[in-house]
C-alpha cells in the first residue's frame, strides 16, 4: 500500500450525507479500499468525493480510525489493538450499526471486522427473542414456521427459554 | 392373483384317441404347448404393479412433524394459527401432552365447549365457533389428544419383556453396539465381565406410543381444559363418539357442566367407519389418496361441500403424525355397552338441560337413530339440522340451534370471579337474538372473514353499541390477522412500550438489512448462536443456514484452515467438539494400540472406542486407525477431510498429519529433551492410571522406552492380580 503513496501531503475532500466536508490526507484515505480504487482509476483528487450513505458523525469516527491506523502502520501492533478495543467501547448500537455499514461501504476491512465482532458479541448467548428486541428486527415468521425452525435447531436451545 | 388363475386351468392333456388299442407310441405330447410367455407376461405385470403400489404407498406417508407442519394447506395453517395449545397431563408420571384449542368470542361470557368425535377435529367446528363467538358466546373447540393438532403420540419408557424374540433382538443390538467379542475383550482387560451394568441398561427402552384415550383419560383432558381455560360452568357440546368418552366425566362433575348438547352422537358407532382405518391395504388407499378419502367422507360423514378442500384438511389431519393409530386405538377403547337411558336418568345428569341436535336429511336409518336417542332422553329437546354427520361449512344452523338452546337457559353464576354480564346487557343480547331467529339468516352463512357483518350490525346497531361499551363487540374476538399473539408455545417478542417495532428496512439499523454486513457479523458467531439467530426472522434464517457460514463457525474455534468434503447430514456441523476430529494414522508393522496411545498421548480405550475395535488384534486387518485429537493445537491451520470411516462407522473430520510436515508432531518414542520426557510421563500416567512417581519409575527401569514401560507395568499388574486371587 505504501508504494501507491506518492505524496503524503496530498489532501482530498469527503462529503458526508448531511453535507459536511472532511479534508483528509491521502494516505489516511487509502485505508479505505473504495477510496483507493477511486483514486487509482481517476486521479482527480481535487474533486469532492460524496459519500451519500454516511453521516457526518459516523464519517468522523471512521476517519479517526483510519488516521490512527495509517499513522501507526504496522509498527506498533499492540498499541493498535488496544486502540481498537477502546474505539468501540461504550458505543451505542445505532452508532455501531452506522459504523459497520460505513466500513462495509468504504471497504475498510479492519474496522468492519472489529465492528462486526462487537455486534456478534452482543448476539452471543442471548435468546433469539431478545436479539429481535435489541436489533429491532421484526419477526416475519408465522408461529408454526417459527416452531418448526426452532425445532430444527432445538439442540442450540439448551438452557434457553 | 386373479390374473394368474386365469392362466392356470390349462386344457387337459388330450387322451389318446382310443384307449382300448394298445398304443405303440408313447402318448403324444399335449398338442398345442401353452405359450409360456403369456404366463410370464402376466406374472411380471402383476409383480411390477404390486411393487409400484407398495412403493408409492410407503412414500405417501411422510411422518416428520416439521415438514408436516410446513406442508399444510393454507386453510389448516390459518386454523392452527388462530388456536393455542394447552398442556394437559393425561397419565400421571408422564410428561404432559399438548392439546390444541381454538377459541372465539368474548372470554367473559358463557362458555361452550365443543368436543369432536373420532376421526374429526376442531377444524370441523371452526365455523360454528366463529358464529357463536359473534353472538357473544365464548365458544371453544378442542382437538382431543390423538386428533387434529394435538399431540398424537408420546414417549413411553417400557421395561423390556425379555421374552423370546425381544430378548434375541436385545442381544443382537448389544452385539451390534459393542462388538462380538466385547465380553471377551473385557475379560482380557479387566479380568472379569461387568454383566450387571450391562443388564440394567438393556432392560429399559423408550417407545413412541400413539395416544389412545379411554374414558378416564378423556375425563382428565376435559377437566384440565375446562380448568385451565376457566370455562366452568360449561355448556358441553358432544359430537359423534365424544358422548361415549365424555359421558363419565359429566357424571362425575355435574357441577362444572351447565348443559349438554348432543350433536349427531351415538354410543354405538362412529361416523367414520373405523375398519377403514384399521384394515391394512384399505387404510393406505383411503388416507393416501385424496379422492378416495373424499368419497369415504361423503358416504359416511358429511355432504360434499367446500370443494373438497375440507375433506383434504381432514385427511391431512388424520394422516399426519401418526394420527390414524390413535384414532383406531381410541375406537377400540370405546365404551360400547354404554346405556344412554341409564346415563340420562342417572343422578348427575338428570338435572342438566339437554338438547339433541340431529341431522335430518342424512339417511333414513340415521333419522331413526335420532328418534331413538331422543326417546332415550325424554327431557331433551330435539332439533334437526340439514348438514351431514360431521359439521361443515353449512354449520350455521347447528350453531343457531345451539345458540337458541343456550339462550333459553337460566343465567349461570360463573364460578370464576369474573364480572358477570349485567342484566340489561344480557337483555339486549337476548333481544337481538329474539328478532333474529325468525328468518334463516342468509348472511350468517358466510362466516369466512372477520369483517363486520354489516346487515346484522345495522339491524342491531343499538345493541352493538351497547356491547361496544362493555367491550363485548367483535373487536375482542382476536382478529386472525395477529395470530402470533395467540400462540402460547412461541411467545411473540416482548417489545417494551417505548420501543417501536421497526422492520429492518426502515429502522436506523439499516445495517441489518444489508446482507453483506449481516453476513460479516454472523461470521463471528459460534455454531449455537448461529442456530438461534436463524430463529429471528426469515432473512436471518436464510443467511445463517448458509453452508459456508456453518463450516466457518465449525472451523473457527480450532483455527482450522479448511474443511473438505460434505457430511452425509447437515447435522454434522452442529457439533464441533474435539470429538468430531480425528487423526488418521496409517498403520505400519510395528504399531500396536498401546504404542499409538503413547505416541499420540491418548488413552488406549479411546482409540478402541473411536475405531469400534473389538480386540487388539483387529488392528492388523486395517490400513489405518483414527486417533482422537488430544491436543487441539494440532488442528491450527490444518485441513480436515470429512470422512465416513468404514471401520469406525462414524463420520469424523480427519486430519492427515503425514500429509505435510508439521513441526508439532514429534515421535516421542525416545525421549530426547526434558519436555519430551515430561510428555511421555504424562501419557504414561494417563494410560496406566498411576501417579507421577510410578510412571517415572517404570520409565526409568525400561530405559526411557515408553512401550517397554507399559509392558513392564501390565506384567506387574497381572502378577498382582494373580497374587490377589490366590
Automatic annotation (TrEMBL), chain A:
What residues does the SKP1 component POZ domain cover?
Answer: 11-70
Q: Which Pfam families match?
A: Skp1, Skp1_POZ
List the pathway annotation: Protein modification; protein ubiquitination
- TM region(s), chain numbering: none
PANTHER family registered for this protein in UniProt: SKP1 (PTHR11165)
Task of the protein: Involved in ubiquitination and subsequent proteasomal degradation of target proteins. Together with CUL1, RBX1 and a F-box protein, it forms a SCF E3 ubiquitin ligase complex. The functional specificity of this complex depends on the type of F-box protein. In the SCF complex, it serves as an adapter that links the F-box protein to CUL1.
The protein's name: SKP1-like protein
Q: Which organism is it from?
A: Rhododendron griersonianum
Lineage here is: Eukaryota, Viridiplantae, Streptophyta, Embryophyta, Tracheophyta
Automatic annotation (TrEMBL), chain B:
Q: Which residues form the LysM domain?
A: 583-627
One example GO MF annotation: hydrolase activity
Bias class Pro residues marks the residues at 10-33
Q: Where is this region: Disordered?
A: 1-33, 432-459
Per its UniProt entry, which superkingdom is the organism in?
Eukaryota
Family matches, as InterPro entries: AB_hydrolase_1 (IPR000073), AB_hydrolase_fold (IPR029058), F-box-like_dom_sf (IPR036047), F-box_dom (IPR001810), LysM (IPR018392), LYSM1-4 (IPR045030), LysM_dom_sf (IPR036779)
Full protein name = LysM domain-containing protein
Source organism per UniProt: Rhododendron griersonianum
